[in-house]
Amino acid sequence: MKPYPIRSEHEENSAHLVSDSLAGVYASTFFDVAGQSGFTAQKLAGLFHTALKTLQRYFKDKKKLDPAASEHLLRIRYVYEQGKDVFGSIASFEEWLEMPSYGLGGSVPFKLFETPAGVGLVADELTRISFGDLS
After folding, report:
1. Long-range residue pairs from 46-55, CB within 8 A, at least 24 positions apart, any chain
2. Which is more confidently placed, 95 or 15?
3. Is 4's pLDDT higher than 60?
4. Is the pLDDT of residue 100 over 80?
5. What is the pLDDT of residues 44-64, one digit of tens each?
6. Which of 80, 81, 116, 119 counts the most CB atoms within 10 A of its CB?
7. Are 108 and 101 in contact (CB under 8 A)?
8. What is the mean pLDDT of residues 75-86?
9. What is the mean pLDDT of the chain?
10. Rounded to whole angstroms, how far apart are CA atoms 54 and 48?
11. Contact 8, 82 (CB under 8 A)
């Protein structure tokens, strides 16, 4: 079995993740992540169990997301960076996100994005893939 880091290189500075989350990220970050991914803002909003109109109002009013939503969004952003590195493109990564994954017990990775713990499972699987550990 090959050794691999517990955290991806994108999450290695968890102190920044915590401090950024506690401070809250602006709703504009949500729309940046939606724009960088191939998923619609509506689909991404569904992961947060929040109406897109609410996020649009936050954006218009220059409001920040609460710490829990901020952490969740930042983790998704980091996993997208990791996925792009592993698969070579966002398009290839998103294809993988929509397919059942053997390494995730047959779960569809995108569905795991509904919780920060699920995002962590996807990040761990990407790390295993990057190291060739497909067990």
Report:
1. 47/72, 47/76, 47/113, 47/114, 48/72, 48/73, 49/114, 55/27, 55/30, 55/31
2. 95
3. no
4. yes
5. 999 999 999 999 999 999 999
6. 119
7. yes
8. 93
9. 87
10. 11
11. yes
Closest CA to 71 of 1, 128, 133, 119: 119
Cβ contact 3:126 at 8 Å: no
* Amino acid, res. 52: L
**At which residue do the structure tokens 């506690």 appear?**
22
**pLDDT exceeding 70 applies to what percent of the chain?**
88
Distance separating alpha carbons of residues 40 and 34, to the nearest angstrom: 6
Percentage helix, strand, coil for the chain under 3-state DSSP, each rounded to 5: 65, 0, 35
